[in-house]
């Protein structure tokens, strides 16, 4: 009850005070001020994927900022797979460690979030709405900031960035990229060995399966609900019919697969692949700026739209620095942190904020940004296909392994 | 006589000294506790998740997993094949060339190669042999006509050939060093002379006279190699097949599956992994028996095999090839770490950049310090413990029995993943998870057996008469140790320290699982980066993994020759 009251008060204060004076507003919000006071001197262990030096550098920058401004120490614990963090929190729960856990904040989305929520491994709902910068989040046009893979976030994870499936091609080798799934199949068949997708259960591999599923399923409504086992085979039949045709033309004839999106990007740079894909629309521009992709690489999407979602940060139930984690999550939502993140050389990750609704100064930061040569404008990014319910992930992955993963 | 004393002490259980008990508890304790922690969930018992009834359901689920048999078979065959090939290469080369200048020269290359961590070697090898890798670039497009990389299944092939090659390249230096240590005993040279005197060829002398003497000393290392190769995770992840993968990497992914119920199945799988490794060990022991029986006939035949030039060449080639491949792989890592852009088919990078290197080292300085500290402390502790144990036992006239050895080797003979999960739970219960101390202990479990491996034979070969003579004129036990035994063993002790440090640096799973991700080493960073997109960073961190052990081996090679520069007899490897 007090929490709700505090949240309400916080929001109320935000509405009253002009947004330009936000800094003062946060100081006048007693509930948030209490959080800031408690956070002082805390150390936040932020468990986040550590495979991308650019992202690691961004996290280091953010950590320096909150250390200076709020006296919160953030340590990036670099993980190779977020699922390991879920396992770790579970292990702590299993020995009755209800506080003082090793994980204070996790970079998370979709399946892992659903799993943590289901097993009550997350901090109590509602903390996200108490963050002062929550006011800027675009809840209207970006519904995925509230619903992660059809699972309501309930204020248990704070949005960090937007993801949308985009394809990349080297325009020097492939001028007009395929505009649909059918054209992709035709291209792959005509140029065997030049297309691949990461092997499910890799996140990107599964995303490709979802994209094909969304493009082939007869009744799209099925996807927003938990998997109905009786209808599953029928729903995925067109998907696997498509893959059956695609696989003989895949890279290495589908006997080996790229490990993840980064590996696929490397193979594109090596000239082994003609088409790769990413969940970050600014990825190609960033990689070009860093010399990791040839300057001729460009981005494209399918006409019918591609899968999109939001990635978040969440606090485990037994975090030993709850307040510090909230302060950091709030900082990550700030217009300054969000613009910086969207710069292609820095990360290229699209913002979760409502740019049009930002105060003039902050809006100018976004407007002035050069998204880089290979990034599609928001208009060209095309429609967003929603993520299916998380239960589809497991079912799809198992069906895939059954067919292609174990000969 | 000592063997009688031994038998007595074993039968009665008396005369176990403090160091033996401590070491046994330190090693066997965690393994057994960890195994129990794994076995319970395998039989359906994991109360947190609401599984409180014992059942066989996890095994049922495991058996129904598609491709399980293939995975288990892959682990068994790649691991065994790699181990046997490695042994054959090492023994063949030693037989054909030991005592020659060539042998000495190649030894200089092989010993430091031991320090290359598995993950780094695998990353380097992948850069070398991939269809868009260095070897193809070297001949493209002028010789092959390939302006684009060919679509060839060289890495991650379904039969695990690339993975086997990677394992061989890594195990050969290890087995070679162990063989070298076994050869470094005073009488071995006499065996060679005796063989030559009887008119046996060089290789026949080795196989008929020398090998039977030294094989007991290579045996445990060889068993450790078999156990390791059948349950390896990092090499399998980088070079191994994926449709389906070998058992060990599959286990890791099940243990990390967001579907938490898969934990039970993973635990059942860990027991299957244990069975696979035990089967491999049993098969190896049977092969050993077979070889012994066959060899026996050869001993009696009296054939002297004097025409051996051809076979000697045959033993040199694979060894040379391994050295060339490893050195090339490492050079590639070095080039990649300074390369900004390097598109196919360019033989060298189009754009270089050192700024990333500096950035990476700045970002990685914390993990470098942690790596160094862990390596140093665990190497020193393991070596000191080994010396303490050996000194105490020889003081009491207790030989190093096979039972003791098998306790010490337990952590190397049981697949890591089979007990690490349970061990993680144990540390959590004691509130030690994620502390430096817990990680240090978990490293020691794996570092100590290697230290013991490296040091127990040199200690055993120490002529006891020095100590006895000194004691007889009233020198204290401590003084004998510091003034006589330790100086005589300076070189093996330093090599032990280097080996121990290298083993500590290479630990990935224990650091990750016991360290709760908070203790970050170059190796955990390197594996995290290997899943990302920057080859430059991946290569750089793979190289950084090398630096600590390399310094160790350099010191181990340099210090004795400096300290003993005026004592010809103390300079080994004549």
UniProtKB/TrEMBL annotation, chain A:
Q: Is this entry keyworded Signal?
A: yes
Q: Does the keyword Lipid biosynthesis apply?
A: no
Key words, A-Z:
Periplasm, Signal
Which Gene3D superfamilies does this entry report, sorted A to Z? Periplasmic binding protein-like II
Q: Name one Pfam family in it.
A: SBP_bac_8
The signal sequence is 1-23
What name appears for this protein in its UniProt entry? ABC transporter substrate-binding protein
Q: Which organism is it from?
A: Roseibium porphyridii
